[in-house]
Amino acid sequence: MQLKEAAGRKTVENLDFRLGAFGASVPMLFFVIWAVTTSLLDITSELGLVLGAVIGLALGLFLSKSKWADYAQGIFDGMAQPVGVIAIVAWFWAGMFAQVLQTGGLVEGLVWLGKISGLSGSMFAALTFLLAALFSTAVGTGYGTTVAFCTLMYPAGVAMGADPVILFAAILSGASFGDNLAPVSDTTIVSAVTQGADVPGVVRSRVKYSLAAAFPALVLFSLLGGGSGQGVDQQTAMAAMQESSNPAGLILLIPFALVIFLALRGQHLITSLTWGIITAVPLILVTHLGSFSDFIRFNPNSENVVEGALVEGISGYMNMAILILLIVAASHLMRLGGTMNAITDVLNRWIRGVVRRAELAIWGIVSILNSLITINTAAEIAAAPFVKEIGEKEGIHPYRRANFLDAISSALGYIFPWGAALLLGWTTIGDMTEKYDWLPTVAPTEVFPYVFHGWFLVLVMLIAALTGWGLRYTGKNGEELKERPKKSS
Q1: What does the alpha-carbon distance between residue 340 and residue 429 come to, in Å, rounded to a whole number?
Q2: pLDDT at 215
């Protein structure tokens, strides 16, 4: 075990474990098993996942041959890594921005657009996919999009004759699209930061993959989304939706577009989101879409005392923030204990310098971890070190590595029945039946085959790995090269 001085404190360079590299992986393995088991038993929750991560880290303590104090320091070193901290801070800002837009009625404005278009059935499902993709791209939260659109677009679409299963899948697909492409998305941020890439460049480089998956998904939603109103009283349903739709909320497309514009122009995410918030709040106040107390208010009788959209935007990510820090720590222990080296050594013996094999290995690792871990950001962070090490060895550009990491994570995170996003939408729809007793619910096992954008995005990245489509290498100064640079003798 080695120690290194860093900023006045000692950091652990490596740790020794009983069972070697496998022992170092026990904290992460326990968490994965815990996550899968609780998901299949339908008892998953963010706090439950936090508990699983804590127990996993505690188990690792008893497998450590190094001093327990050094093992504990290794945990803290992992939590202090920039990737986790940067992602958490960005989530807080993105969460506040999303809550401000929702408070101002942007989603209700989007519902109004769908209503006046006169679309019904399958075309409404296709429109829902487009609007969910647009909304999630702006606010950067696929989970928030899932909740908002299951609350508003799902009842409206069912009332208009859309198939409930396909409609739910369209919402999840749209959320997946934005989670992958949005500059302010947590998965976009994590994929860029972990691979040493800038967010605007990563976003520009992945547009072709996102659109390649979105176009066939849109066609299928427009073809298959209708034909099942399931005996709904459409007059009653439309009367209810009339109350929640409001074109005035469309004015919030201004801060919506401003954030995307600033982020793509290279402004820091905190800067972009701050401008989005300080533009949206006055617009909401001036147009009487909300009051100042909707954003922040003090309530001594409340458990939280401080309430409002800004507080909700931060508090919504608290449990996730804790979870991510613990997952980053578990991943760091795998590196300190040699697990990463052991796995990459096996893969490198198979890859043997063949870039196509390297990208297939990256595709496989990210897919497996996202199949097991219920929250895509957590799975992405777990896979990131493998992706970086394999990709850097073969000279694959950081944009390319980040695209594989994010596309697969954003896709599979909305597909599997035990995934957090799908369960979140299912729970939201179930809650809506208390308000709309005519509203049918959809089981998670029914919807996952129809999350077309997610499946297509996974397929697109597999084709990219097999064919080399979009492959770029890293030049001497970090630039993108189409051809692999020759190694100097």
Answers
A1: 41
A2: 96
